[in-house]
Amino acid sequence: MKNILVIGACGQIGTELVPALRKIYGSDHVVASDLNFPLKGELGEGGPSCKIDATNINDIAETVKKYKIDTIYNLAAILSATAEANPMLGWNIGMGALLNCLEVAREYKAALFTPSSIGAFGPETPADKTPQDTIQRPKTIYGVTKVAGELLSDYYYKRFGIDTRSVRYPGLISNVALPGGGTTDYAVEIYYAAIKEGKFTCPLRADTCMDMLYMPDAIDAAINLMEVDPTKLIHRNSFNVTGMSFSPEIIANEIKKHIPNFEIQYNIDPLKQGIADSWPNSLDDSVARQEWGWNPKYNLETMTIDMINVLKEKLK
Ligand code: NAD
Ligand code: SER
Hints:
Elements: E1 4-7, H1 14-25, E2 30-34, H2 41-45, E3 49-51, H3 57-66, E4 71-74, H4 80-85, H5 87-108, E5 111-113, E6 116-117, H6 141-160, E7 164-165, E8 167-169, E9 171-173, H7 186-196, E10 199-202, E11 210-214, H8 215-227, E12 239-240, E13 244-246, H9 248-256, E14 263-266, H10 270-278, H11 286-292, H12 300-314
Parallel strand pairs: 1-2, 1-4, 2-3, 4-5, 5-7, 6-8, 8-12, 9-11, 10-14
Antiparallel strand pairs: 11-13
The site of nicotinamide-adenine-dinucleotide has 28 residues, from β9.
């Protein structure tokens, strides 16, 4: 039986990952933790929870020891736009949390999942069908931490045999927790705005294409990758995964199929636009498909139907 620790559990991913893990492995076997404590709702009440500052290695080590943790999901990070506004914070949290998790994983022989991102690519990377193995020269502090994190995680695997695995998530679209300060946040906010106000002011140009993934597929990616037989993995840190690629104009037209009066207007945020322009238009995720059976269920059409149905209920 696995004993799992989720660090940074209160964010966009953790809010849905923790209940999914508790359903599979049993509530008592999944510890939810965050800097923000106490944890609210299902995160705090549905199983064990505690306060962990991921930049403090003792917080992590004590919890791993106490609950006999064998698998850590490290979700603590500062997302791209917020990190770019405060680069030292982005570096200190992104790298500090990862290095502490790697060291604790080494001492207690735990497996470690830490998401990377499309932010690990940069303007010199081929933008269309971005290959698994390619140029990675990001121009954001977020991207620098993601590339360094991929390298460091592979180093701990090769040097110490630590079972590190990760995926390069694209923008994640979800309807439980709001996104935490990324460049792709608009693709969540647009659904809330469409339902609440019938209109949306977009911070990115109409033709800005980026990869996206619906949260149920993102959760499956994390859990399935951590479950797969390690002998199947040629790559580890980190796998390209994607569910769809679209621009603001394309997603707005998809929403209009369900909310015909929906209107989009544009007020470009130069910081976010610059970041988005440096990221790929569409990833090639065939290596994840080959090595561990990655196969997302949702595309733009099916995700939009689900998002609108769920948010109409939630925002009633
Ligand atoms: P989020 O910003 O929504 O949540 C991060 C959580 O970490 C928050 O609950 C925050 O309180 C917590 N945290 C911050 N500093 C901490 C610290 N010192 N100790 C403990 N907890 C701390 O982030 P998310 O969207 O859930 O992303 C999780 C991971 O996935 C990150 O590594 C992120 O880069 C990556 N990722 C996310 C997306 C996305 O679209 N959401 C896409 C690509 C990659
Ligand atoms: N959604 C994330 C961001 O925009 C991608 O890593 O920062």
